[in-house]
Amino acid sequence: MGLMNGPEFGAGETCNVQSSIHAIIGETESSATVILSRTTGPFKIPVISHTASCECLSNRKDHPSFFRTISSDYHQSRALAYIVKHLGWSWVGTVNSDNDYGNYGMAIFLNTAQKEGICVEYSEKFYRTEPEKLKKVVETIKKGTTKVIVAFVSFIEMGLLIDQLSIQNMTGLQIIGVEGWITSKSLITPKSFQVMGGSLGFALRKINVEGFSDYVVKAFWDTAFPCSQIKGESSQYVINCSRYQDLLGLKNYNEDVPEQRYSSHVYKAVYAVAYSLHSLLKCKEQEGCEKGLTIQPQEVVEALKKVNFTVKFGDRVWFDSTGAAVAQYEVVNWQQDSDGSLLFKSVGYYDASLPPEQRFVLNTKSIIWAKGQLENEGHPHSKSQQLRAEFSAALLIDSVFPLFTYFHWSAQ
């Protein structure tokens, strides 16, 4: 709105006044972020996304002022191929969302899979507004001989796919997923678990942002529903607050907070902009910031390229040459706990900031596979592969156990 309603300039005039917009944090989906980045690019306004992971956004020629606190899918796609090979599967099917996120991510996976000797029986795609294509995808899966499906799918498409697989009662599939849906609590239900139980995939790390839980259960509710502070059965309460009665029963509910894995990325994006502005405004802890300085968006872009700081929960924030953050994923497994509850069990991680021999750790002994199996039966040679994987993983876990503990990558 600031761009559309700001001052107008004639030909030959130069804009030398203070810009009304210095940075934009967002969008969430990659396709929307591509549009936003291209729209703001000519104005040199930095866009910092916390979730847009498409490799297409790494092109600095097309997106010179784009940054993200999530890593590019270049890393996740390759890691998917490595985990498939690691587990001894050489015959898989693939499904992806027909958008920037799914198409670019799947293209990288297929290229890497070919180099790693993984054969792909079929590669299907669909978009959320294409029910006929979705039916075709489900039919292809049903007729396919492979039981291992790599799903590079966005959250909305994955929900639609799970619904159709549940309707067809297609159990026994070993789904390998991505951060776009693998830890979405709304997707894991007793009905969906019959089809999706044992799913394995890469997720953003679970990080506790200090004070966020308190904000959710206190500040948010007090702001969004001020009537929650009203006591008794006064006429004011009856008139203004009775419509919120059902919602107020959830006022102290915060069980979803630990699974808000993107919140730490929003936190980092806000702080990255703040550090950039503090640098440009020459702010000092005791003296404050200089007055009367005019900051242009392009200056914020250059400042963002130089940020390098550590946030309270221990992560270092900086951007590589493409404007992205370092690749760090948790490997999670859809499991059922002893009390019957459904959860995302942490079974390993991938961390590109570590030395190559320590980047990938997978504890196969902790994995529950499709149909609740304790052994990986996706490939005729999978058992021997699994034993070798466990031996390698055990050595790696021992060497990086302090780091593993430090990041508190544990089951919910």
Question: Describe it for me?
Answer:
With 412 residues, the protein is of the alpha/beta class. It folds into 3 domains: 117 residues, Rossmann fold; 207 residues, Response regulator (Rossmann fold, 3-Layer(aba) Sandwich); 48 residues, no CATH class. It is 37% helix and 15% strand. It contains 13 helices and 13 strands. The protein has an 8-stranded mixed β-sheet, sandwiched between helices. A 3-stranded parallel β-sheet has the order 1-2-3. Helix 2 links the parallel strand 1 and strand 2. The longest helix is centred in the C-terminal third of the chain and has 25 residues. The C terminus is likely disordered.
CATH architecture of the largest domain, by name, is 3-Layer(aba) Sandwich
What overall geometry do the principal axes of the alpha carbons give? globular
Radius of gyration: 24 Å
Helix count from the secondary structure assignment: 13
Major β-sheet strand ordering: 5-4-6-7-8-11-12-13
Give the end-to-end Cα distance, rounded to a whole number of Å.
41 Å
CATH topology of the largest domain: Rossmann fold
Query: How many structural domains does the protein architecture include?
Result: 3
- pLDDT < 50 stretches: 379-412
- Structural category: alpha/beta
Proportion of residues in extended strands: 15-25%
CATH class of the largest domain: Alpha Beta
The pLDDT mean sits at: 83
Counting DSSP E segments of at least 2 residues, the number of strands comes to 13
